[in-house]
Design brief:
The chain has about 375 residues and is an all-beta fold. The chain has one helix and 17 strands. The strands form three sheets. Strands 1, 2, 3, 4, 7, 8, 9, 10, 11, 14, 15, 16 and 17 form a 13-stranded mixed beta sheet that branches. The protein has a two-stranded antiparallel sheet with strand order 5-6.
Length: about 375
Protein backbone atom coordinates (compact mmCIF):
# COMPACT_ATOMS: atom_id res chain seq x y z
CA UNK A 1 0.00 0.00 0.00
CA UNK A 2 1.29 3.43 -0.92
CA UNK A 3 1.37 5.55 2.22
CA UNK A 4 2.46 8.82 0.63
CA UNK A 5 -0.24 11.47 1.23
CA UNK A 6 -2.28 12.10 -1.91
CA UNK A 7 -2.09 15.83 -1.29
CA UNK A 8 -1.09 18.11 1.56
CA UNK A 9 1.12 16.63 4.21
CA UNK A 10 4.26 18.67 3.53
CA UNK A 11 4.99 18.63 7.26
CA UNK A 12 3.92 16.61 10.26
CA UNK A 13 1.18 17.76 12.57
CA UNK A 14 2.63 19.62 15.58
CA UNK A 15 2.84 17.40 18.63
CA UNK A 16 2.48 14.19 16.59
CA UNK A 17 5.96 14.11 15.06
CA UNK A 18 6.76 10.80 16.78
CA UNK A 19 3.42 9.27 15.74
CA UNK A 20 3.07 10.19 12.05
CA UNK A 21 5.33 8.69 9.39
CA UNK A 22 8.03 10.56 7.47
CA UNK A 23 6.48 10.41 4.00
CA UNK A 24 5.49 13.76 2.53
CA UNK A 25 3.16 14.62 -0.33
CA UNK A 26 4.39 15.95 -3.66
CA UNK A 27 1.65 18.57 -3.83
CA UNK A 28 0.21 21.12 -1.45
CA UNK A 29 -3.47 21.55 -0.72
CA UNK A 30 -4.77 24.77 0.79
CA UNK A 31 -8.24 25.64 2.02
CA UNK A 32 -9.84 29.04 2.38
CA UNK A 33 -13.33 29.98 3.51
CA UNK A 34 -15.15 33.27 4.01
CA UNK A 35 -18.38 35.03 3.09
CA UNK A 36 -19.44 34.76 -0.60
CA UNK A 37 -18.11 38.20 -1.54
CA UNK A 38 -14.67 37.63 0.02
CA UNK A 39 -14.52 34.17 -1.54
CA UNK A 40 -15.27 35.58 -4.98
CA UNK A 41 -12.56 38.23 -4.68
CA UNK A 42 -10.00 35.68 -3.46
CA UNK A 43 -10.85 33.31 -6.31
CA UNK A 44 -10.45 36.09 -8.86
CA UNK A 45 -7.00 36.97 -7.52
CA UNK A 46 -5.81 33.38 -7.31
CA UNK A 47 -4.07 33.33 -10.69
CA UNK A 48 -3.86 36.45 -12.79
CA UNK A 49 -2.31 37.18 -16.17
CA UNK A 50 1.45 36.99 -16.13
CA UNK A 51 1.63 34.97 -12.91
CA UNK A 52 3.36 31.59 -12.93
CA UNK A 53 2.28 30.59 -9.43
CA UNK A 54 -1.00 31.06 -7.62
CA UNK A 55 -1.44 33.79 -5.01
CA UNK A 56 -3.20 32.19 -2.08
CA UNK A 57 -5.24 34.56 0.10
CA UNK A 58 -4.05 35.41 3.58
CA UNK A 59 -5.37 32.98 6.12
CA UNK A 60 -5.28 29.94 3.83
CA UNK A 61 -5.14 26.70 5.77
CA UNK A 62 -3.20 23.52 5.11
CA UNK A 63 -5.25 20.40 4.33
CA UNK A 64 -3.52 17.04 4.85
CA UNK A 65 -5.00 14.02 3.04
CA UNK A 66 -3.87 11.47 4.39
CA UNK A 67 -0.77 10.86 6.56
CA UNK A 68 -0.24 7.42 8.08
CA UNK A 69 0.88 6.67 11.61
CA UNK A 70 4.19 4.84 11.96
CA UNK A 71 2.71 1.94 13.91
CA UNK A 72 -0.13 1.18 11.54
CA UNK A 73 -1.16 -2.40 12.39
CA UNK A 74 -1.98 -4.87 9.63
CA UNK A 75 -5.67 -5.78 9.51
CA UNK A 76 -6.82 -9.36 9.95
CA UNK A 77 -10.03 -11.34 10.18
CA UNK A 78 -11.05 -14.15 12.50
CA UNK A 79 -13.79 -16.57 11.56
CA UNK A 80 -15.63 -19.34 13.39
CA UNK A 81 -18.34 -21.51 11.90
CA UNK A 82 -20.33 -24.63 12.74
CA UNK A 83 -22.48 -26.48 10.28
CA UNK A 84 -24.06 -29.77 9.36
CA UNK A 85 -25.27 -31.32 6.13
CA UNK A 86 -27.53 -34.29 5.50
CA UNK A 87 -29.82 -35.85 2.93
CA UNK A 88 -33.45 -35.57 4.11
CA UNK A 89 -34.67 -37.67 1.19
CA UNK A 90 -33.36 -39.06 -2.08
CA UNK A 91 -31.54 -36.66 -4.44
CA UNK A 92 -31.68 -33.77 -1.96
CA UNK A 93 -29.22 -32.02 0.34
CA UNK A 94 -29.91 -29.72 3.30
CA UNK A 95 -27.08 -27.75 4.90
CA UNK A 96 -27.23 -25.40 7.90
CA UNK A 97 -24.26 -23.24 8.91
CA UNK A 98 -23.76 -20.67 11.63
CA UNK A 99 -20.88 -18.23 11.19
CA UNK A 100 -19.16 -15.45 13.12
CA UNK A 101 -16.61 -13.18 11.44
CA UNK A 102 -14.60 -10.45 13.16
CA UNK A 103 -12.47 -7.83 11.44
CA UNK A 104 -9.69 -6.38 13.60
CA UNK A 105 -7.28 -3.44 13.10
CA UNK A 106 -9.19 -2.21 10.09
CA UNK A 107 -7.91 0.98 8.51
CA UNK A 108 -9.44 4.38 7.89
CA UNK A 109 -8.64 7.97 8.89
CA UNK A 110 -9.85 10.75 11.18
CA UNK A 111 -9.25 14.46 11.74
CA UNK A 112 -6.62 15.07 14.42
CA UNK A 113 -7.10 18.83 14.00
CA UNK A 114 -10.66 18.81 15.30
CA UNK A 115 -10.75 21.02 18.42
CA UNK A 116 -12.26 20.05 21.74
CA UNK A 117 -16.04 20.39 21.97
CA UNK A 118 -17.10 23.81 23.24
CA UNK A 119 -19.44 23.50 26.28
CA UNK A 120 -20.53 27.12 25.73
CA UNK A 121 -23.25 25.88 23.34
CA UNK A 122 -24.58 23.02 25.45
CA UNK A 123 -24.72 24.58 28.92
CA UNK A 124 -26.32 27.68 30.38
CA UNK A 125 -28.53 30.02 28.32
CA UNK A 126 -27.33 28.60 24.95
CA UNK A 127 -28.46 25.04 25.71
CA UNK A 128 -32.12 25.42 24.68
CA UNK A 129 -31.30 26.85 21.24
CA UNK A 130 -28.75 24.13 20.54
CA UNK A 131 -30.88 21.16 21.57
CA UNK A 132 -31.35 18.79 18.61
CA UNK A 133 -33.22 15.55 18.03
CA UNK A 134 -33.01 12.19 16.34
CA UNK A 135 -35.65 10.56 14.15
CA UNK A 136 -37.35 9.00 17.18
CA UNK A 137 -37.87 12.39 18.77
CA UNK A 138 -35.24 12.01 21.48
CA UNK A 139 -33.56 15.30 22.42
CA UNK A 140 -29.89 15.87 23.11
CA UNK A 141 -26.77 17.79 22.13
CA UNK A 142 -24.23 17.46 19.37
CA UNK A 143 -20.62 18.28 20.04
CA UNK A 144 -20.22 21.86 18.81
CA UNK A 145 -16.71 23.02 17.90
CA UNK A 146 -17.25 26.70 17.05
CA UNK A 147 -15.43 29.26 19.14
CA UNK A 148 -17.33 31.05 21.87
CA UNK A 149 -19.68 33.78 20.65
CA UNK A 150 -18.22 37.25 21.11
CA UNK A 151 -17.43 40.57 19.40
CA UNK A 152 -14.55 39.02 17.44
CA UNK A 153 -16.41 35.79 16.68
CA UNK A 154 -20.01 36.60 15.72
CA UNK A 155 -21.25 33.02 15.41
CA UNK A 156 -23.93 31.06 17.19
CA UNK A 157 -22.82 27.76 15.60
CA UNK A 158 -26.28 27.47 14.06
CA UNK A 159 -27.13 28.00 10.38
CA UNK A 160 -29.11 31.18 9.77
CA UNK A 161 -28.21 32.91 13.04
CA UNK A 162 -25.80 35.81 13.42
CA UNK A 163 -23.12 34.99 10.83
CA UNK A 164 -24.07 31.33 10.81
CA UNK A 165 -21.61 28.55 11.58
CA UNK A 166 -18.09 29.99 11.79
CA UNK A 167 -15.90 26.88 12.15
CA UNK A 168 -13.03 26.42 14.55
CA UNK A 169 -9.74 24.50 14.34
CA UNK A 170 -7.26 23.17 16.85
CA UNK A 171 -3.92 24.26 15.40
CA UNK A 172 -3.22 26.97 12.82
CA UNK A 173 -2.39 26.82 9.89
CA UNK A 174 -3.98 23.37 9.55
CA UNK A 175 -7.56 23.13 8.36
CA UNK A 176 -7.89 19.36 8.49
CA UNK A 177 -5.20 16.78 9.15
CA UNK A 178 -6.49 13.34 8.31
CA UNK A 179 -4.45 10.67 10.02
CA UNK A 180 -4.69 7.04 8.89
CA UNK A 181 -4.64 4.43 11.63
CA UNK A 182 -5.94 0.93 12.40
CA UNK A 183 -8.53 1.79 15.07
CA UNK A 184 -11.61 0.31 13.39
CA UNK A 185 -13.29 -3.09 13.66
CA UNK A 186 -16.34 -4.98 12.46
CA UNK A 187 -18.27 -8.15 13.15
CA UNK A 188 -20.74 -10.24 11.21
CA UNK A 189 -22.98 -13.03 12.45
CA UNK A 190 -25.03 -15.17 10.11
CA UNK A 191 -27.15 -18.28 9.77
CA UNK A 192 -27.14 -19.90 6.33
CA UNK A 193 -29.74 -22.51 5.35
CA UNK A 194 -29.50 -24.12 1.92
CA UNK A 195 -31.65 -26.85 0.40
CA UNK A 196 -31.21 -28.32 -3.07
CA UNK A 197 -33.24 -30.97 -4.89
CA UNK A 198 -31.28 -32.35 -7.79
CA UNK A 199 -32.82 -32.49 -11.26
CA UNK A 200 -34.79 -35.76 -11.41
CA UNK A 201 -37.90 -36.61 -13.38
CA UNK A 202 -37.46 -33.33 -15.29
CA UNK A 203 -37.72 -31.14 -12.15
CA UNK A 204 -35.08 -29.57 -9.90
CA UNK A 205 -35.35 -26.82 -7.34
CA UNK A 206 -33.57 -25.13 -4.43
CA UNK A 207 -34.13 -22.74 -1.55
CA UNK A 208 -31.57 -20.58 0.22
CA UNK A 209 -32.08 -18.34 3.25
CA UNK A 210 -29.59 -16.16 5.11
CA UNK A 211 -30.12 -14.32 8.35
CA UNK A 212 -27.31 -11.97 9.27
CA UNK A 213 -26.30 -8.92 11.25
CA UNK A 214 -23.24 -6.79 10.54
CA UNK A 215 -21.95 -4.13 12.93
CA UNK A 216 -18.98 -1.80 12.49
CA UNK A 217 -17.71 1.67 13.33
CA UNK A 218 -17.15 2.82 9.77
CA UNK A 219 -13.99 0.99 8.61
CA UNK A 220 -13.91 2.35 5.10
CA UNK A 221 -11.54 5.11 3.88
CA UNK A 222 -14.27 7.50 2.80
CA UNK A 223 -14.83 11.17 3.61
CA UNK A 224 -18.42 10.51 4.73
CA UNK A 225 -17.22 7.82 7.15
CA UNK A 226 -14.66 10.00 8.93
CA UNK A 227 -15.78 9.98 12.57
CA UNK A 228 -18.03 12.95 13.26
CA UNK A 229 -16.41 13.35 16.69
CA UNK A 230 -12.71 12.52 16.93
CA UNK A 231 -13.07 12.13 20.66
CA UNK A 232 -15.74 9.47 20.49
CA UNK A 233 -15.29 6.57 18.09
CA UNK A 234 -17.99 4.66 19.99
CA UNK A 235 -20.63 6.98 18.50
CA UNK A 236 -19.82 5.61 15.05
CA UNK A 237 -20.77 2.05 15.95
CA UNK A 238 -23.89 0.98 14.08
CA UNK A 239 -25.20 -1.63 11.68
CA UNK A 240 -23.01 -1.86 8.61
CA UNK A 241 -23.95 -0.20 5.33
CA UNK A 242 -23.63 -3.68 3.76
CA UNK A 243 -25.89 -5.30 6.36
CA UNK A 244 -28.91 -7.21 5.04
CA UNK A 245 -31.00 -8.86 7.75
CA UNK A 246 -32.78 -11.40 5.56
CA UNK A 247 -32.04 -12.75 2.10
CA UNK A 248 -34.10 -15.43 0.37
CA UNK A 249 -33.35 -17.04 -2.99
CA UNK A 250 -35.45 -19.71 -4.71
CA UNK A 251 -34.73 -21.43 -8.01
CA UNK A 252 -36.49 -24.03 -10.12
CA UNK A 253 -35.60 -25.83 -13.35
CA UNK A 254 -37.90 -27.76 -15.67
CA UNK A 255 -36.29 -30.02 -18.26
CA UNK A 256 -38.04 -31.11 -21.42
CA UNK A 257 -38.13 -34.65 -22.80
CA UNK A 258 -35.04 -36.21 -24.33
CA UNK A 259 -36.52 -38.53 -26.98
CA UNK A 260 -39.85 -36.99 -27.95
CA UNK A 261 -39.23 -34.42 -30.67
CA UNK A 262 -36.05 -32.73 -31.96
CA UNK A 263 -37.64 -29.33 -31.41
CA UNK A 264 -38.44 -29.78 -27.71
CA UNK A 265 -35.81 -32.33 -26.71
CA UNK A 266 -33.32 -31.04 -24.14
CA UNK A 267 -34.95 -27.66 -23.48
CA UNK A 268 -34.74 -26.27 -19.97
CA UNK A 269 -36.92 -23.59 -18.40
CA UNK A 270 -35.79 -21.94 -15.18
CA UNK A 271 -36.60 -19.20 -12.72
CA UNK A 272 -34.67 -17.49 -9.94
CA UNK A 273 -36.45 -15.36 -7.35
CA UNK A 274 -34.40 -13.15 -4.99
CA UNK A 275 -35.80 -11.24 -2.02
CA UNK A 276 -33.85 -8.99 0.36
CA UNK A 277 -34.76 -6.77 3.28
CA UNK A 278 -33.58 -3.13 3.04
CA UNK A 279 -30.12 -1.71 3.45
CA UNK A 280 -29.66 1.19 5.86
CA UNK A 281 -28.22 4.63 5.11
CA UNK A 282 -26.91 7.58 7.08
CA UNK A 283 -28.81 10.87 7.25
CA UNK A 284 -26.25 13.58 6.54
CA UNK A 285 -26.84 17.25 7.33
CA UNK A 286 -25.14 18.31 4.09
CA UNK A 287 -23.09 21.10 5.68
CA UNK A 288 -20.70 21.76 8.55
CA UNK A 289 -23.32 21.43 11.28
CA UNK A 290 -20.91 21.16 14.22
CA UNK A 291 -18.40 23.86 13.28
CA UNK A 292 -15.23 21.76 12.90
CA UNK A 293 -14.54 23.08 9.34
CA UNK A 294 -15.31 19.71 7.70
CA UNK A 295 -18.88 19.16 6.51
CA UNK A 296 -18.95 15.85 4.64
CA UNK A 297 -19.52 13.67 7.70
CA UNK A 298 -21.97 15.74 9.78
CA UNK A 299 -25.16 13.87 10.62
CA UNK A 300 -28.63 15.28 11.20
CA UNK A 301 -29.17 16.22 14.84
CA UNK A 302 -28.05 13.43 17.18
CA UNK A 303 -28.90 10.75 14.64
CA UNK A 304 -26.50 7.76 14.68
CA UNK A 305 -25.07 6.17 11.52
CA UNK A 306 -27.21 4.04 9.22
CA UNK A 307 -30.70 4.62 10.63
CA UNK A 308 -32.54 5.45 7.39
CA UNK A 309 -34.25 2.34 6.11
CA UNK A 310 -33.99 2.02 2.35
CA UNK A 311 -36.11 -0.03 -0.03
CA UNK A 312 -36.35 -3.78 -0.08
CA UNK A 313 -35.09 -5.71 -3.10
CA UNK A 314 -37.05 -8.12 -5.27
CA UNK A 315 -35.79 -9.76 -8.43
CA UNK A 316 -37.27 -12.40 -10.76
CA UNK A 317 -35.19 -13.95 -13.53
CA UNK A 318 -36.62 -16.37 -16.10
CA UNK A 319 -34.48 -18.24 -18.59
CA UNK A 320 -34.79 -20.87 -21.29
CA UNK A 321 -31.95 -22.86 -22.80
CA UNK A 322 -31.46 -25.39 -25.61
CA UNK A 323 -28.20 -27.32 -25.00
CA UNK A 324 -28.06 -28.45 -28.64
CA UNK A 325 -27.90 -24.96 -30.17
CA UNK A 326 -26.71 -23.27 -26.97
CA UNK A 327 -29.58 -20.80 -27.25
CA UNK A 328 -30.53 -18.89 -24.12
CA UNK A 329 -33.00 -16.14 -23.29
CA UNK A 330 -33.31 -14.32 -19.97
CA UNK A 331 -35.80 -11.83 -18.60
CA UNK A 332 -34.73 -10.42 -15.22
CA UNK A 333 -36.75 -7.72 -13.54
CA UNK A 334 -36.80 -6.19 -10.10
CA UNK A 335 -36.86 -3.26 -7.76
CA UNK A 336 -33.21 -2.46 -7.20
CA UNK A 337 -32.19 -0.96 -3.85
CA UNK A 338 -31.75 2.73 -3.37
CA UNK A 339 -34.78 4.26 -5.07
CA UNK A 340 -35.76 7.42 -3.21
CA UNK A 341 -38.52 7.52 -0.63
CA UNK A 342 -40.78 10.44 -1.64
CA UNK A 343 -42.15 10.73 1.89
CA UNK A 344 -38.77 11.75 3.28
CA UNK A 345 -37.40 15.13 2.26
CA UNK A 346 -36.64 15.92 -1.36
CA UNK A 347 -34.42 13.48 -3.27
CA UNK A 348 -31.23 15.07 -4.57
CA UNK A 349 -30.26 12.15 -6.79
CA UNK A 350 -31.71 8.90 -8.09
CA UNK A 351 -29.72 5.75 -8.80
CA UNK A 352 -30.44 2.04 -9.29
CA UNK A 353 -34.07 2.53 -10.41
CA UNK A 354 -36.51 -0.25 -11.26
CA UNK A 355 -35.35 -2.19 -14.28
CA UNK A 356 -36.62 -4.73 -16.77
CA UNK A 357 -33.98 -6.41 -18.95
CA UNK A 358 -34.21 -8.80 -21.87
CA UNK A 359 -31.31 -10.86 -23.22
CA UNK A 360 -30.84 -13.42 -26.01
CA UNK A 361 -27.65 -15.37 -26.62
CA UNK A 362 -26.93 -17.69 -29.52
CA UNK A 363 -23.71 -19.70 -29.91
CA UNK A 364 -22.72 -22.11 -32.68
Amino acid sequence: MCQIPSCGGLSKYPGRESIQDDLNANTRLSAFGADPFTNAAALGALLQAGQTTASYPAGSLEAVIVRFVKKHKPPYGAQASLGFEFQPFKDSVLSVTGMHVRGVHLGSFYNVNQPDANPFYTTGPEAAAHTVHDSRGDAGFKNYYCGTTGPTNPTDCLPGTLFGVIPNIRTFPFGVDFEADSKWDSQWDGLLVDFNKRLTNHVGWGLSYTWSKGIDNGPNPSFVLIPQDTCCFDRERAVSADYVAHRFVANATLQGPTHLNPIVNGWQLGMIVSLETPHYFTKFAGFDANGDIFGNNDRVGIEPRNTFKGDSYQSVCNFAADPTAQFCTATPSGNLEGSPNPSYGTPRAIFNPRQVQFAIRVAW
